[in-house]
Amino acid sequence: MRNLSIFVLILILSMTAFAKKKGAPAMTSGAPGDRTCLTSKCHAGNELNTDKATILVAGLPKAYTPNEIYEITLSLQQVDAKKFGFIASAADVDGNAIGTLMSDDETKTQVLSDDKYKSRTNRQYVSHTEKAINASSKGSSPTWKLTWQAPAEGAATSNFYFAFNAANGNKKKTGDYIYTRSFEVPVATD
Hints:
With 190 residues, this protein is mainly beta.
C-alpha cells in the first residue's frame, strides 16, 4: 500500500510539473508581424479597442537606463467581464527582441516557450497563467506583474506591446473584447 501511495504521489507531482499553463498564444501581442487574439480568431464578436475597458500599464520608465530592471504592473477593468488575459512583448524599431522579459509571479504570469515561434521571431512573450484569468472582483482583472531588464547596451528605443482580453466567460469565442496598447521608451541620455 505504501508503494502504491508513493507511486500515486509521484504521478501527481509529475503531471503538475508538466501541466500546460494556458496563456495567450505567442505572437498575438499586436507587435509588428504579430496578430492579436481577435485577428487569430481566439476571441471574437467585438471590434478591436472599443474603449469599454480601463487599462492600467504601470512601471514603464519615460526613458530606460541600460541593464536596469523595471517592474511592470498590468490590469484592466470592464463591466460584466468575467475572465481576463494579456500578452506582452518588447522590441526595438526593427522588431527584434530588446532586453529580457521575466515573470514576476509564476502563479500569475509566464514566459512563453519559444519552441513554436523562434523560427519566425526572436522576441519574448509574457502572458497570464490559467490560474490568473478570473476576475478579482466583479469586472476587474487580476493584477499581473512582470519585469523587464533593459539591454546592457543602451542604443535603441524599446517598444512595448500589450494585448488584453476581457471575456464574458461563456466558453465560446464570441462576445469577448481585445485591446492593444503600445509604448515607446527611449534610452536615457546623460
